[in-house]
Specification:
242 residues; alpha/beta; single chain; 10 helices; 7 strands; three-stranded parallel sheet; Rossmann fold
Length: 242
Amino acid sequence: MKTIGLLGGMSWESTSVYYRMINELVKEKLGGLHSAKCLICSVDFAEIEECQRAGEWEKAADILAREAQKLQQAGAECLVICTNTMHKVADHIQEAISIPLLHIGDTTAEKIRARGVNRVGLLGTKYTLEQDFYKERLRRYGLEVIIPRPDDIETVNRIIYEELCLGKVLPESKREYLRVIDDMVERGAEGIILGCTEITLLIGQEDTPLPVFDTTFLHAERAVEFALSGVDAASQKGMKIF
């Protein structure tokens, strides 16, 4: 089994979900007492969030690149950035290491195409929604991306930073997200991307009849596929696909 490097802490709430999902998937595939071989580097999110607000993306990239190097030096054989937003600096981080970076956008787009969905509604931070780094990655796969209206972007972003990143999961916020999803469906969305790793704490497939693409789960699943790529297939049970 290969060792997964998790670059997390952005926020730690979703990083803990990554850790749980990865271990659950390994257990499901291998059974018994098997668990994932992984290393976690958890940064201080306040420092990264300050860079986001100030537009100091190069500074944030340098911080994360140094942490990625530590993971590689410690024995990680792949890198998973446990956040959608900071994939804005994924290329910078990849240049700093020699192990593969498993890009959350590619992973998500491949699953969407496999489901035959062409037009997707995207939920995420205002950086993910308003800037092109993430949407353009999806468009490379021929996907049409629908985002919330301007006022709704602010609502979605506020709930992420002021609630979900702090472990607050409120029913009224779920109702707001479902309202935003309904609006994107009315504008043609055929599926919904949970494009922030904290949103999985609030919204799931059970909340809407449309296909929901949970980037946290899909990314964790991709990491496990990489980690077990050299494991004897006869000992694997088959991975659960949502």
